[in-house]
Amino acid sequence: MKILAIETSCDETSAAVVEDGRKILSNIISSQRSTHSLYGGVVPEIASREHLKLLEPVVKKALSEAATVLKNIDAIAVTQGPGLVGPLLVGISYAKAMAYSRELPLVGEHHIKSHIYANFLEEEGKKEMPQFPLIALVVSGGHTDIIYMEDHGKYELIGRTIDDAAGEAFDKIARALGLGYPGGPEIDGLAQKSKEGVDFPRAHLGNSYDFSFSGLKSAVLNYLNRLRMKNQPVCKAHIARGFQESVVDVLAYNTLKAAEDREVKNVLLAGGVSANSALREEFDKRALKMGINLHFPSPVLCTDNAAMVGAAAYNRYINQISKESAWEKFTELDLNAVPNLAL
Length: 343
Ligand code: KG4
Ligand code: ZN
What we know:
With about 350 residues, the protein is an alpha/beta fold. It contains 11 helices and 10 strands. A 5-stranded mixed β-sheet has the order 3-2-1-4-5, with helices on both faces. Strands 8-7-6-9-10 form a 5-stranded mixed β-sheet, with helices on both faces. The mean pLDDT is about 95.
C-alpha cells in the first residue's frame, strides 16, 4: 500500500511516498529556514504563503522520485495538528482537493504521533524495530512530552513541559547568543567546541516526569548579562555547552526514570531536538547501563518531514481503522486544521 503524505505544520514544506508504513520511496523536504531566519523565528503568515508556493512542486517531486504517479497511490495522509493554523490549512486543503478529485481515502494525522512513528520507518543501519510497551520522548520546537505506549495507537501522556518546549529554549538561547535560527543545530555545533560547560541549574519537579526550562533560560540570560555588565569576555561555546548539558540531563533523567518505573525496556526519541548529538550520546550511555533498547531516527527524520506522517497513517490503518471499518470510510473531507489537537 502506497501513501502520499503531506506535512506543512510549521516551516517545512514536505511530501513523501511511503510503502506499507515502512519503506520511504521519497521524502522531499523544502525548508523555509533562510526566509524565517531574517526574523529570528517563524512568521506564520509568511510560512503559509511559502507553503502555497512550494507544495505543488514538492508533491510533484515526491511522486517522480518515488517513480510513481497519482494513479498508483492508495491514500493521502496530511498533518491535521498541532501546528500553525495557516500552514496546516494549506496542506489540508491541498490534500482534500487531491483526495476528492482522485476518489482516494484521506487521513488526517497527529503531528506528535507522526514524530513517534518516524522510529518505525526503515532505515539503513537501523537496529531492530521498537517493541511495545514503550516510552517515547517527543522533543521539538513546540513540545516536550513523555508518552507511554502500551501498543500501536495507545498513547498516555505522562510528562510534559510546564512552560517552554526544549526546542524553544534552544532557539531563545541561540538568539541571546547572537546565533542563527533555528538555534538547536547552532548550539549543538558550538557546544562541541568547548571541553566543558558553565554549570547551570537543572529543574526537577518533585515526583512528576514534567519539565521546566524557563528557570534555566533566565539563569543563562542572567549569566550573560553579568558578564556584559562587567565587560568580561563571553565564551559562547562554554555557555552553549553548559545550557545543552542541563537540558539533556533532565530530558534523559525523566525519560529513563519513567521507563524504569513502568518497567519498560524500549525507549524512543523523536522530534527536532532528538537530532542533538549530545542528547543521543547521553541517552545511549545511560540506556546501555540500564539494559534499555534505545531507538532514534536519523537526524533528517527527527525534524519535520512527511515520511513520518505516512508511517503513522499506515499504522493507524492496519492497527485500528481496518478493525473497525473500511479504509474508505476514513475519507474525511470535512477535515479541518486543529492548531492544538489533543493526543
Ligand atoms: O520537530 P521540529 O522540526 O519542529 C517542530 O515540530 O517543532 O523541531 C524543531 C526544533 C527547533 O526548535 C530546533 O532548534 C530543534 O528542533 N533542533 C535541535 C537540533 N536540530 C533541530 N535542537 C537541538 N539540537 C539539534 N541538533
Ligand atoms: Zn515537529
